[in-house]
């Protein structure tokens, strides 16, 4: 199933949606900030807001239930509210959004939540490539429901709320990407490939048996297409040839195994379909930028307590 493949990719790249701040405010307001992270999201729970950032032609209007994901932007400005007087400058309360979300007026307040998408380098490359400078996801039933449940956990400070906020942050990111796929024509890349019905049988084979030496005609036959038509469609949808995609998939699996397991490099090479350890090491270094052993040692050194 394509959903299972997307879940598998999410696990491999360790994608997580993390809530970092929020505020509720009435009357005219403006919030400005530098963006020091690759993927930041802004969610409007109640009210409305106008988003401006670098690299877009004009402001984006965000309604209640909308989410915007900023892809590698350097600054943002949000403004909203109605009434007389100059706008009030507001800064989200980092790491403790609940302090600014207590005692709100549902009829007049704008309620904004902010956060970021945390993932490993492989995931960062995949998601940055799949999203435009600003992905505007308009309100959808599941997305709005997840936003409201997340807001309730943030604002009520119930027992176990920290755990619940982390889980709803994950679900929010998943619902955002689902809605984005349904609402927007996708650029060529892995996310579009995983949602393409014609390519699904071939992708399932590559994901299920990555170590098998798949031939182009076998994959084309699984997709019930001619060899030429399959190769052309795959390149158009995924942005790369089928066997290049297979190699990228193998490298993602290799990175997870080197990070989480104690498998020997030679055994891993054989499992992923490489004729020798040296052939695998060469392919890994070309893809990741360092040898498998150096990659493993570096990650474990970084994760060890000082």
Automatic annotation (TrEMBL):
Q: Which SUPFAM superfamilies match?
A: Homeodomain-like (SSF46689)
Where do the HTH araC/xylS-type domain residues begin and end? 200-298
UniProt cross-references to InterPro entries, sorted A to Z: AraC_lig (IPR032783), AraC_XylS_family_regulators (IPR050204), Homeodomain-like_sf (IPR009057), HTH_AraC (IPR018060), HTH_AraC-typ_CS (IPR018062), Tscrpt_reg_AraC-type_HTH (IPR020449)
Coiled-coil residues are: none
Q: Name one GO molecular function term.
A: sequence-specific DNA binding
Pfam families, A to Z = Cupin_6, HTH_18
Question: Does the record's keyword annotation contain DNA-binding?
Answer: yes
Entry keywords, A to Z: DNA-binding, Transcription, Transcription regulation
The protein's name is AraC family transcriptional regulator
- Species name for this entry? Nonomuraea glycinis
């Amino acid at each position: 199933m394509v959903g299972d493949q997307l879940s598998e990719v999410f696990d491999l790249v360790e994608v997580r949606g993390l809530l970092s701040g929020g505020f509720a405010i009435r009357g005219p307001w403006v919030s400005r900030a530098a963006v020091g992270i690759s993927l930041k999201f802004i969610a409007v729970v109640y009210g409305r807001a106008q988003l401006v950032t670098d690299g877009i032609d004009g402001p984006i209007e965000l309604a209640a239930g909308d989410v915007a994901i900023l892809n590698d932007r350097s600054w943002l400005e949000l403004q909203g509210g109605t009434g007389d007087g100059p706008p009030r400058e507001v800064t989200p309360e980092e790491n403790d959004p609940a302090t600014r979300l207590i005692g709100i007026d549902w009829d007049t307040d704008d309620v904004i939540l902010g956060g970021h998408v945390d993932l490993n380098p492989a995931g960062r490359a995949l998601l940055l490539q799949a999203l435009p400078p600003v992905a505007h996801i308009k309100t959808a039933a599941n997305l709005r429901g997840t936003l409201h449940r997340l807001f309730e956990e943030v604002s009520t400070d119930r027992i176990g709320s920290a755990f619940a906020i982390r889980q709803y942050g994950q679900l929010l990111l998943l619902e955002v990407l689902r809605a984005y796929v349904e609402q927007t024509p996708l650029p060529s890349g892995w996310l579009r490939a995983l949602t393409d019905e014609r390519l699904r049988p071939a992708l399932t084979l590559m994901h299920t048996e990555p170590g098998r030496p798949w031939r182009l005609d076998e994959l084309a036959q699984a997709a019930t297409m001619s060899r030429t038509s399959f190769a052309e469609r795959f390149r158009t949808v995924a942005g790369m040839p089928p066997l290049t995609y297979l190699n990228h998939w193998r490298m993602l699996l290799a990175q997870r195994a080197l990070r989480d397991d104690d498998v020997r490099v030679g055994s891993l090479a054989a499992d992923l379909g490489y004729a020798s350890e040296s052939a695998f090491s060469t392919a890994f270094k070309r893809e990741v930028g360092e040898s498998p052993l150096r990659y493993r040692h570096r990650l474990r050194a970084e994760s060890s307590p000082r």
